[in-house]
Amino acid sequence: MKKIHLNAFTQCCINHHSEGQWKHPLDGSARGYRDIDYWVDLARLLEQGGFTCLFLADVHGTYSVYRGSRETAVRHAVQFPSNEPTVIIPAMAHATRTLGFAATYSTTYFPPYQTAKLFSTLDHLARGRVGWNIVTSYLADANANFGIREELGHDERYDRADEYMDVVYKLWEHSWEEDAVVRDVGHDVYSDPGRVHTIDHVGRWYEVPGPHMCEPSPQRTPFLFQAGQSGRGTDFAAKHAEAIFCVHANLEVCARGVAKLRAAIAKAGRAPDEVKVCQGISVVVAPTDAEARLKLETCRSYASPEGSLALFSGWAGIDLSTVEPDRPLDTLDSNAIQGVLSYFKDVDPDRRWTVREMGEWISVASIMPKIVGSPATVADELERWIDETGIDGINLVPITQPGGFRDFAELVVPELRRRGRLHALTPGATLREQFFGPGRARLPRHHAAFSALPPWKTAPR
Ligand SMILES: Cc1cc2nc3c(=O)[nH]c(=O)nc-3n(C[C@H](O)[C@H](O)[C@H](O)COP(=O)(O)O)c2cc1C
């Protein structure tokens, strides 16, 4: 029987995917997101609930496609304000033993040398329980904040990210030999300078001499997540990722998406199952189906549908305010709108979607498929996702925070455990080992990180 991993998906902001819930009396995100106790309590809750990893999204600009302005996003707290995710990890790691922490960090904004130092530090402090969600980023107004005047095209951003990965791999895997740290008290030697190497990277985008500033951390390279869904994004993920985060509207589309991903992974020369695929799902659970439906309706009454349209417009790059709210989308002939419509056709093929209806549907848990019901109903539906799509895990997107995580941990997790559907986690293991088993703290030797050996490894010493 196939088991899955549970990841919790959120961001250091006021309710990540459900605009307006900050007004809900059971939502603590507006008060909590800037409070370290909130994050430490959440980490403990997730660990007790058997979650493998807390996955932290991040952005560096505002959602300003909607109405050609950031106004709606600011008004409805659409991932704005949003704090830095990496700095909260050490406190959460200190309070836990099995939970992993994946932070989103952009290859467009941060130099690879700095990224390598940051994640090595986190991996040391969290004793190997750190992951990196590699993103190339998508918000247009973020570029200016980093002094980027000329935006690269979509595919070129991935080309640059490929070279970026070369640089960080060289720093993490090839700069320090395994036995470089000798800590020889008698001879007064901490590290052997002959075993700490420069990387001398010179490429199209980056020149980085090195050496890496940090001695090898438990995983060396942090566990690698990726979530690009385009053709180029899939190729990038197939080459680098160890876990992929996807969002598909229903089981059939997800099954096709997972098969396509596995084919891309095989084409990249890797075993199709050596990358874990996790689907975003939102769950509303209560002791009975009727109570769960009521809970969802209560959440809907706090939602800010316009804020959700601003979020979605930013993702899709289409200003949905330009479409008359009650006009069926299938009467519009713009390619972009048809692309949006095709996602919603998968959500419910029998419905003739208008912008207003979409806004209401995505106002809780955005575009995530939603499972609503008693623990048994939710577990039945999750078992279908596990057995019919080929996924290895879910990324749980709560509606109220932390209530949505607590409900899942208290009501659904015992049911999934009873059905033998959750992986057991090992205290003290690294995040990579939680996903791939004992003895797998490091990237495997056939990973792209080792495709170009540095001179000191090829030349006789
Ligand atoms: C489920 C999911 C979560 C994502 N989370 C983030 C995020 O937190 N920050 C970000 O900048 N990009 C995020 N992205 C964007 C991508 O990782 C990627 O950089 C972007 O979608 C462009 O690539 P693509 O065209 O291949 O999808 C996410 C994408 C998906 C599908």
Question: How would you explain this protein's 3D organization?
Answer:
The strands form three sheets. An eight-stranded parallel β-barrel has the order 1-2-3-4-9-10-11-13, surrounded by six helices. A two-stranded antiparallel ribbon has the order 5-6. Strands 7-8 form a two-stranded antiparallel ribbon. It is globular, with a radius of gyration of 22 Å. With 461 residues, the protein is an alpha/beta fold. The mean pLDDT is 94. It contains 17 helices and 13 strands. Helix 9 links the parallel strand 10 (243-246) and strand 11 (276-285). The chain has a single domain (5-282, 370-451), classed as TIM Barrel. Helix 8 (231-240) crosses helix 9 (251-267). Helix content is 40%, strand content 13%. The protein has helices at 29-32, 36-48, 71-75, 89-94, 112-125, 140-145, 154-174, 231-240, 251-267, 289-302, 305-316, 335-347, 355-362, 375-389, 403-418, 431-436, 455-458; strands spanning 5-11, 53-57, 100-106, 130-135, 181-184, 189-191, 201-202, 207-208, 223-226, 243-246, 276-285, 370-373, 393-396. Flavin mononucleotide binds next to strand 3.
Tag the structure with descriptive keywords.
alpha/beta, eight-stranded parallel β-barrel, binds flavin mononucleotide, 17 helices, 13 strands, TIM Barrel
Number of domains: 1
Name of the CATH class: Alpha Beta
Architecture (CATH level 2) name:
Alpha-Beta Barrel
C-alpha end-to-end distance: 50 Å
**N-to-C order of helices and strands:** EHHEHHEHEHHEEEEEHEHEHHHHEHEHHH
* Broad shape: globular
- Main β-sheet: number of strands, strand sense, barrel status? 8 strands, parallel, barrel
Could you tell me the mean pLDDT?
94
What share of residues is helical?
Answer: 25-40%
